[in-house]
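Lab notes, practical 5.
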Amino acid sequence: MKIALDVDGVLADVIHAWLSYNNKVRTTILKSEISEWDFWKRYDINKFEFYEELSMCWKSWKDIPPTETSISHASKELSKMGTVDIVTAREESTHDDVKNWLKMHDIAFKNYVGVAEGAEKAKLDYDIFIDDSPINAESMLARGKSVILYSQPWNLDFADQRAKRIYELKNAVDVIGKIHCN
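Output from the prediction step:
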């Protein structure tokens, strides 16, 4: 079994770093106020500026917290179920920073796959995708892929029951076990 594991929003809480930056230079935004994927539109932030700032946050990769405390253990448990690859959409300039972060947090994976846009992930040959983007989930499901949606404030409105929602990465182990048995 091949498992595609996302970084931003699933392993790394990069939005925490971005909010810290944003709240110094703009109006204060709380993570709980982010209720949609493209929330930045609501605050009149340009898409390219937002993604550029996210990339900038990765330059301080040591300061980006994991989404949860047991993320390393959960990644190791997933690796027992099949081949886990990191599949992430980002600027090429941030790949080394992300790899350093993964090493620092002892994340278990076999391959690192970087794509330019999230929509490209759905075209890849994986049995299961673990992601937090409702847009990525939608395109993956449209291609008949199995999706585990890591719950975040920006995907709470995603209601497609074909995607299995988890609140902690360790819960993906049981979900994959059930998917694999069917």
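Observations recorded by the TA: DSSP finds six helices and six strands in the chain. Residues 31 and 173 are 27 Å apart (CA to CA).
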